[in-house]
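User: For a benchmark we're assembling, each entry needs the component sequences followed by a predicted structure for the full assembly. Here are entry 17's components. Please fill in the structure.
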Amino acid sequence: MTDQAIHNRATSITVRLAATIALILAAGGIAISVAAYAYGRQAAQEAYDRMLAGAAFQIVQAVSIIDGRVVVNLPVSAFELLALAPDDRVFYRIVGPDGGTITGYENLPPPASQGDEMTFYSADYSGETVRLASAVRRFAERGFTGEVQIIVGHTTLARAALARDITAKALALLAIAGIALVALVAFAVRSSLGPLVRIEQALRARDPKDLSPLTVSTPREVETIVAAINRFMGRLADRVTIMQNLIADATHQLKTPIAAVRAQAELASGEQDAARLRTIAGRIHTRAVGLSRLADQLLNQALIIHRSDAAAQELMDLREIAIRATDETDHDLLSSGLDLHLDLPEHPVQARGDALSLVEATKNLLSNALRYGAPPVAFSVEHDPATGMAAFTVTDCGPGIPETDWPDSGRRFARSAGSLPDSAGLGLAIVNAVAEAHRGKLAFSRTADGRFRVALTLPAERGEQS
Amino acid sequence: MGGAAARAAEATHQESLAATLGIAKHPPRRSCGGTPHPNLPPQGGKGLTERFRFVVLLALAATLLAQPADAQDVLTEQRVTQFGAWQDTATATLTIDGSTDTEVFAPILEAFARRLPDVAIRYREITTNELYQLAESGCTSDAPAADLVVSSSIDQQVKLANDGCAQPNHSAAVQALPVWAKWRDEVVGLTYEPAVIVYNRDLVPEAQVPHSRFDLIDLLRPADNPFVGRIATYDIERSGVGYMFAFVDAQQATTFGRLIEAFGRNKVVATCCSAEIIDEVASGRFLFAYNMLGSYALARAADDKRIGVVAPTDYTLILARAALIPKRAGHPELARQFVDFALSEEGRRLLTESGLIVPFNDPAPSGLVASGEVPTLRPIALSPALLIGLDKQTQENFLALWRSSLGSAGAEVR
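Assistant: Structure for entry 17:
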């Protein structure tokens, strides 16, 4: 792999995951930070408001009426409570019913509205923001009736510090969680991508000629990749095998006729007699025709094998295939007087497949029957709705292939047929390859009246026929 | 000896000046707690004048003329002393207002002046209430503010800080202080002075020496005890420190109620001031004096064998004289340097020599009469809780209680 290729490849999964997780963490982190700060402020506010309330209540209790006069004995405990906010300045004011200050800081602002409950409010006082609590005590004593308002407050250093502290702790926790998450994700990514690395290593370590399935154990999610690789390798192996067989058989098939042509040609070169020369030329012609058909068939088979893997499966009417095959069958064979009987159903028989392959295959079946079988030859398209299978059948009255050869016929190049001078012997192999490519099969049988029957079956398309 | 002579001469000069200006003649020089310090550390035989240009200006006329009207009302008398560089040639003048006697505070001021030869240091000795009023007017108006205020009235110092009249000193030396000795880094405790019981060693038998408030109450219980009319304490209506000690006593223990009740029965004399009370204990006019400031008492006891000092074992209040840098100080940096110097090892040593830090780590600490028991030390924390004592109403209530307890039983208030 060149450097250029490395640079051009898509972003790695690790980088994608890292980016996604970083994005999620950043967004979550910001959201949680804001929430933590809001929570910290809220918590600090509540905590110190309670403290303020406690101090205010203590001072409320310390207010009494003596001889019709408001008397306040400020409790030390109230101020010690306030001193729990250690660096905050403390303010208080006790206001009589006439609005005059009884004691404390005279201009400490009262709340905008005072309810029966403790009222908390913020104000600017003495150059700082001050949080205040205000409570009212009502007296109905001899010589004094009215309300005494108690205002207690302090600056907000301790609140801000507590809010900061809570936020900082929350953020520290968040940071730890984030780091842990990143570490876990890194570990998870590495371990999840492990099988891919193993597959890569297995492929790299393997011999280039070894096309056997991979045996790497992988998690279920990656199994599909391994299966796909194995399927691909299987097809590759099949293709290579077919190619090798094709080449081997083609070599084998072509060797004899070519040798014969050469021998005849050599004979001709030394022959003086014109009549015998003409005879030899006739033989050479016959051989050349056979050779040409053989080459034809070899190329056909190569083409069909290629198409069975590559061609798109299209929907078609099998009757049209039968008609095309009949039309394209060698008319020399028909003009010899042999009878061909084409038997087609009334309704279309739909199936998916490659028309060219099927035409070639059925042509082969017809040619075989016409060439080697005994007339009359019946060619029909059948459809069995019960099994959902369609079939091209060719029946002739000849002896056909011996039953012992049936299992071998089509599986490989029929050697018995290959010895015939003008026969390629490839016909059934092509048919078989086409049948397999269409998830069908090639079957031989004898009819009840002893005729030889060859059938190419393939699945029909359900519900298409009317 | 030359230094002492110089000071004597200055004192005379001071008196004559005061007389010229028509100011009430003294002693006492201060309304309360002020007294010529009897335990001056020897100055190594050399004249202060030579070494530190120790100058007693007593520029009373000049300063009074320079003061705005309200400050004039506040200041009844003051004593201004200059240390370090001459004011004309100095790059800056650090003004320190303090309630501590000039003689007692001089060593640390001189040592600080030695470190900053270009700086003139002006120390004004003023009573605590006047210190507070000056600092307050300096905070709220355009009146000139000192660079540093050092007062034994720590409640007033806390009030100043609470009213936003101070600026903080976040130095490492301040951070190192215990929590009780500082507030907001604005009020900083410099000294360590116990509140003690002073007694006459010649007239009080050793067996009767009270080592705790319980002992004192027991001693005063019999109706015909010999101490009637011969016990003194601060008049808390006139002495800020005396009031604070009494107010804190009232919070510390229930003994306070029984104590002032006993004081009332025994016709305790509430009077002023430290120097006079201790003088009269020495002379035998008083047998006991309660809640005296230990720094003065121990200094006197070192010179005068008739004076005994006891730190009560039930609890001994500790006062840390507090420094505060006013918000409008002209040279806050110099003031911070001085505070840090006072908190440094050398500063502490000098304050200990001056008697302002009373060490309690020795087995028989610095002249205290040992009782065999270690006293429980209760430092008065610099915190907003001290504000209560200054509350108008609470103060009235407390003084009313004091008056009724002492007055009803016929105690003498001079």
